[in-house]
Design goal:
386 residues, binds 3-thiaglutaryl-CoA, four-stranded antiparallel β-sheet, alpha+beta, 9 strands, binds flavin-adenine dinucleotide, single chain, 11 helices
């Protein structure tokens, strides 16, 4: 039986979706949970799990089976993100980037030849991808990117820098966004072994340590025109990929919230002060109940998004509202769980501080909390406050 579910939201899912979730939980409890604190402390991503993620259907789960996807519903995909982030945001990030930011753009904006060539190995985890949109001068305004793609013979020369790129040093291909000579944003599949391509890992992170983050440097990298995503034209293309990833994050954050709640609950039942467990104190109960309330709201928001997504009526500001709310709720819960654990809460023997530090990144990437406020603000008022 799965953990926190105060309103029996899991009952709303199909038996197949529930089964996929339970299998994912069993797998992750066995293969990842016992080691995650060490991976995080060492600052390493468990590469050995990449093909296993493929076997488990974590990569491109909602893409059609013809391309190696698992053909899962939006809710089924969301549940996988929930389970991955219940263990660690870094694991969910790996799967999010591969599925929503690499496989999705190839599926949505690629040619049939590109789909056949790249999607099956990406889904099996034999090939890893990354997504280069953010640049060193600022990520919130990707329309101001400086990376350029210049036509040359049968292809393009790409020059520029991308910053904070998840999976950058693991990737065989990078989906890179660049402006052409007319200033139109285009997407390219760049093999990372091309001359002029360098990935430099970002070190000394205090967050998302079980994840590889890199700077990409492209110096006159040549790609043939058949590596350009033919249907991608303008900023809307990369932004539509972000909508997919943000959707998954709304689910993942609820998984992290469950993880820290369970730890705080367990601890509070056994920690005796002044002759009674701290769980018997009103101050502690208020904190736990707030977590239950926030988890319930997060799960219901995510579930509703899944319905709208499958119906094809989901708008990107609706996704922004859930990304903003669910991540901030999980971050707050992780801080409070850490507080309930007292001094023990500052060590990696407990998971709350790891989730808390990870969620600082999740609150920032894929659009900061402020940027999602402005996206929803523009949607409800009709006024842009960017
Ligand atoms: P704006 O005028 O708003 O939009 C340009 C065109 O794009 C459309 N659009 C979207 N379409 C789909 N999904 C979205 N989320 C969309 N947002 C906008 C829009 O309708 C418009 O279309 P059209 O046809 O009218 O041209 O452009 P703007 O320059 O004003 O954009 C502002 C803003 C803030 C919305 C946008 O730039 C933004 O979202 N900024 C945040 C950037 C961001 O989230 N970067 C994330 C990088 S990737 C990452 O962090 C990966 S983390 C790893 C992991 O996921 O684990
Ligand atoms: P900035 O855009 O410089 O923002 C700085 C501050 O200003 C923020 O608080 C922001 O909210 C605020 N701000 C900005 N504009 C406004 C405004 N108009 N009004 C009010 N406040 C404003 N990017 C990728 O492309 N691919 C990846 O795989 C990827 N992975 C990442 C992994 C990690 C670990 C991290 C930390 C980031 C990753 N990112 C990735 C980048 C991420 O998307 C950006 O960090 C994010 O979009 C914010 O950009 P920035 O860091 O440049 O901050």
């Amino acid at each position: 039986m799965l953990g926190l579910d105060y309103y029996r939201v899991w009952d709303l899912f199909t038996p197949e979706e529930r089964m996929a979730q339970e299998e994912a939980r069993r797998f992750l409890e066995r293969e990842a949970a016992p080691h995650i604190a060490s991976w995080w402390e060492e600052g390493t991503f468990p590469r050995q799990l990449i093909p296993r993620f493929g076997e488990m259907g974590f990569l491109g789960a909602s893409l059609p089976e013809a391309y190696g996807g698992a053909g899962l519903s939006s809710a089924g995909y969301g549940l996988l993100m929930y389970e991955l982030e219940r263990i660690d945001s870094g694991l969910r990030s790996f799967a999010s980037v591969q599925s929503s930011l690499v496989m999705y753009p190839i599926f949505r904006y690629g040619s049939e030849e590109q789909r056949q060539r790249f999607l099956p190995p990406l889904s099996r985890g034999e090939m890893v991808g990354c997504f280069g949109l953010t640049e060193p001068d600022g990520g919130s305004d990707p329309g101001s990117m400086r990376t350029v793609a210049r036509r040359e013979g049968s292809g393009w020369r790409i020059t520029g820098r991308k910053m904070w790129i998840t999976n950058g040093n693991l990737a065989h291909i990078a989906v890179v966004w660049a402006k052409d000579e007319e200033g139109i944003i285009r997407g390219f599949i760049v093999p990372t072994d091309r001359p002029g391509f360098t990935a430099r890992e970002v070190k000394h992170k205090m967050s998302l340590r079980a994840s590889v983050t890199s700077e990409l440097i492209l110096e006159e990298v040549f790609v043939e025109d058949d590596l350009r995503l033919p249907e991608a034209r303008g900023l809307g293309a990369p932004l539509s990929c972000l909508t997919q990833a943000r959707y998954g994050i709304a689910w993942g954050a609820a998984g992290a919230l469950e993880a820290v709640f369970q730890e705080a609950l367990e601890f509070s039942r056994h920690r005796i002060t002044f002759g009674r467990p701290i769980a018997a104190r009103q101050l502690v109960q208020e904190k736990l109940v707030q977590m239950v309330e926030d988890h319930t709201s997060s799960l219901l928001r995510a579930w509703r998004l899944a319905q709208l997504k499958d119906a094809g009526t989901l708008s990107y500001p609706q996704v922004s509202l859930a990304k903003r709310a669910n991540v901030r709720a999980a971050l707050k819960a992780a801080r409070v769980a850490r507080e309930i654990l007292g001094g023990s809460g500052i060590t990696l023997e407990y998971r709350s501080i790891r989730h808390m530090l990870n969620l600082e990144t999740v609150d920032t990437y894929e659009g900061t909390y402020d940027i999602h406020t402005l996206i929803v603000g523009r949607d409800v008022t009709g006024e842009s406050a960017f």
